[in-house]
Design a protein that fits this description.
The protein has about 280 residues and is mainly α. The chain contains 13 helices and no strands. It folds into two domains: about 160 residues, Orthogonal Bundle (Tetracycline Repressor, domain 2), CATH 1.10.357; about 120 residues. It is globular and about 55 Å long.
Length: about 280
């Protein structure tokens, strides 16, 4: 069991939670009870998951020496020696084969979106991650790719308001993570791109995109969805403010995935939102 746990850790399986954005078109298009749509979305989810894991493993192989000298990253499976580079390369081959097999059962356009995502993230890992603003925009674009691929997989059109909502939220989360890294004592404060950021600019970016997110979400909830969908707005506002409050603490990592998995308040907000969403879309 520990053996497999190390492989899951190398693949960053816990980061697969980011790929739930792929399910947004399925839910909002009211196809949640359509078996074919569910299967296509699940396959697309796995494509993104395997693709992102391939990127993580490649990064860890390339950064193995640097990670060995890092106070936190030295515990990663490759850096600690728990998994050898040879086995990591075999894992990349296995994940690639699974990716190719799964890509045969979803629309080609959806597959191309995932391949583009992988390519851009490899560019990010080896070059663009040290360029301010571009680094966060690429991360935010990744969430757009997820939603877009989810829509292509089940052949439904994505609302422009929804895309703007997700993009602004992603930028808010991305710049929030950078601010947390800047003010904390985390080893990630050594990230090169942080040399180009300062607290005032990051606070301005966060305020801008938090405002944009709430405006776009409100417009989307009033114009595009079902009756009474606007009742979710207070819940969204609370979740946004709660998350921003957590980012002010130096003892908390700014990774949205980590906060989602470990903060009970954020968990409750997310679960409540999903329940209300299902009721409004599928029951009322």
């Amino acid at each position: 069991m520990d053996y497999m746990k190390n492989y899951f850790k190398l693949m960053r399986v816990h980061h697969w939670i980011k790929n739930i954005f792929i399910f947004i078109p399925l839910v909002f298009s009211k196809n949640l009870l359509v078996v074919e749509a569910i299967l296509a979305t699940l396959v697309t989810f796995l494509l993104f998951s395997f693709g992102s894991s391939i990127i993580y493993v490649i990064n860890d192989i390339c950064d193995i020496e640097k990670d060995r000298n890092h106070p936190r990253k030295c515990k990663r499976p490759l850096a600690s020696g728990v998994i050898s580079i040879k086995k990591a390369k075999i894992l990349i081959i296995v994940l690639t084969i699974l990716f190719i097999i799964l890509s045969l059962v979803v629309p080609l356009n959806a597959v191309l979106i995932v391949v583009t995502y992988i390519f851009i993230n490899l560019l990010y890992s080896f070059k663009l991650k040290n360029h301010p603003i571009i680094d966060v925009m690429i991360i935010a674009a990744g969430f757009i790719f997820r939603v877009f691929a989810g829509g292509l997989a089940i052949e439904v059109e994505i609302s422009k308001w929804l895309m703007l909502t997700i993009f602004s939220l992603s930028l808010f989360l991305g710049f929030g993570k950078r601010r947390n890294e800047l003010i904390s004592d985390s080893p990630d404060k050594k990230r090169k791109v942080l040399l180009y950021y300062n607290l005032n600019s990051l606070n301005n970016f966060i305020n801008i995109f938090a405002t944009m997110f709430l405006v776009f979400y409100s417009l989307y909830s009033f114009e595009e969805i079902v009756q009474y969908f606007y009742v979710t707005i207070p819940l969204v506002i609370y979740g946004l403010l709660k998350y921003d409050l957590l980012l002010q603490r130096e003892d908390i990592e700014g990774d949205p995935t980590e906060i989602l998995l470990h903060d009970n308040g954020i968990k409750i907000v997310c679960i409540s939102y999903v329940i209300i969403l299902i009721i409004l879309l599928y029951i009322i």
